[in-house]
Amino acid sequence: LSGGSGSDILYGGQAEDTFQGGAEDDLVFGNLGSDLIEGNAGNDLIYGGQDSDTISGNDGNDTMAGDKGSDLLDGNAGNDSMTGGQGDDTLDGGAGDDYLAGDAGEDWIVGAEGADTLLGEPGRSLCDFDGSRCRSDS
User: How many CB atoms neighbour CB 62 within 10 A?
Assistant: First the structure.
């Protein structure tokens, strides 16, 4: 499924889907299946869904949520906000000042360029940061 030149709303089905956001601010729901979602340009809002998803925000200030499954969330450029969900997730902020929250599961949380905030479950998350703040919620 591909977005156009405007702001789009994209919904996935019950199987694996591939999404390409458009040039503006998009809203993407992965739903069921292990989905591949790329936000592309714009400030996108992306929900992975029930299974293990790969989500890339790309350009813009994106908000991403993995939900269930072992998800891979990659912010790339922009000031992004991402939450892993219930599985064993990998969150990579990329460039920009990002907010990364692992939630439940054994997560790998990576801050990169910028002043990132990294949050993980106590004793269950590993953080790697470069000038970022890392702590476990209690």
Answer: 30
